[in-house]
Amino acid sequence: MKPLHTRTKVTACVALSALVAGMLMPTTTRAQDNQGRDENRDPPDLTFTVYAALDLKTLAPPDGMNIAGASLIVFGNLFRSGDGMEGANANNDPNQGEVIGRILCRATIVDPDFSHPFGTFVTELYSWPDGVSNLLADGIGPNLGFTSHRIVSGGTGRFRNMIGEIEEKEIGFNNTGGCNLRVSFKLTKAGGADHIR
Questions:
Q1: Is residue 113 a part of any domain in this protein?
Q2: Which of 69, 138, 150, 186 is deepest in the core (most CB within 10 A)?
């Protein structure tokens, strides 16, 4: 197979960038256009906020955050309060305090430059201590000071048949170097899903 010439490579990169921008821009525009319509929609059935602290000591592989395309997993804990979790030098312990649940993140690095708004494409499993109540969220993960809106694709236990969205903001770093997150859930009971076993 013949190698691509530099000009061909540049053209391919520009075309790919335009395609990605075209896929992202309509979503942003539609969201702005629909803001007025959102007021007429039914309110969510359940809203609540939790705070998550990711323990970077659980990161696998340990050097998985430096290369675009690399996959990683990391665990953390959920808390009711975000006291002491804000700022680049928050220095809170992700394993201390009133833990109300767990978070497991499975992520692919999209952009290893942490000064950019979004760094990962991530699936997050939020679990509560009853052993059966979980929520699954999917989408782009924000870097420090940035916020993302992500899909909640479903739940189990007390969250059975719930779907919706989260607003997730990275608010600081803890003493393991892991991020602290404020996660606000807006959940709705999926219509007509009670027949699913």
A1: yes
A2: 150
Bond from prior residue into 44 cis (ω within 30 degrees of 0): no
H and E: helices and strands count for the chain: 2, 8
Domain presence at residue 133: yes
CATH code of residue 179: 2.40.480.10
Radius of gyration of the chain (CA): 19
Q: 3-class SS at 29?
A: helix
Tokens of 19: 């395609």
Which residue, chain included where needed, has tokens 């404020």?
A: 182
Other beta carbons within 10 Å of 21: 10
Task: Count the domains in the chain.
Answer: 1
Strands (E), the chain: 46-60, 71-79, 99-109, 118-127, 134-142, 147-156, 162-173, 179-189
pLDDT in tens, the chain (197 residues): 444 443 433 333 333 333 333 333 333 333 344 445 555 567 899 999 999 999 999 999 988 778 889 999 999 999 999 999 999 889 999 999 999 999 999 999 998 887 889 999 999 999 999 999 999 999 999 988 999 999 999 999 999 999 999 999 999 999 999 999 999 999 999 974 443 44
Q: How many residues does the chain have?
A: 197
